[in-house]
């Protein structure tokens, strides 16, 4: 029996997820990150999740015709993109220094400039690496692409990001009201790690059960 049974339960991708999400915790404790920096890097994770979801839609469902997959990919890009943009606008209104104009927030360089100003680049790279590892480990090597239809691939991101980021927006708003104490920010990140890990494990357990 392993000396670390919890590691067997969460798997290597769960461990990578924890390590990637620990970067914001370091930022809070040692780099002075505030609620806005945290919410911004969590927003960028939405974008990363969308990119990998798009890859799944295009490659999943070997029984689906390529035309159908392309249509679903286009629909997802418009729908998910609008959802993400709306979430970003809400984030700016609640936590940003504003005011911001719509013609600003639709430009990718605007968000990249914000990322550079808040110093969250390393956290973005860590989160991207975590999702890339999970994609390769579960979807490619684990064979999830064989038992996942394009429609299911399109629906997969929504339960995770809706629950996770509604919780984060509420938590961030409460922290803003209490003056953003460092201990509160740290607990906020730890709770995010726990919720994210739970959703991650549930998602892949369902796909394994589908086999």
Explain this structure to me?
There is one protein chain. By secondary structure, the chain is mostly helical. Helices cover 82% and strands 0% of the residues. The chain has helices spanning 5-30, 35-59, 66-95, 102-105, 108-118, 121-140, 150-155, 157-177, 182-210. α2 runs antiparallel to α8. The two termini are 26 Å apart.
**Separation of the first and last Cα atoms:** 26 Å
Number of strands: 0
What's the helical proportion of residues?
over 70%
What gyration radius follows from the Cα positions, in whole Å? 18 Å
Topology:
Layout: H1 5-30, H2 35-59, H3 66-95, H4 102-105, H5 108-118, H6 121-140, H7 150-155, H8 157-177, H9 182-210
Short description:
By secondary structure, the chain is mostly helical.
Structural features:
211 residues, 9 helices, 82% helix, mainly alpha, 0% strand
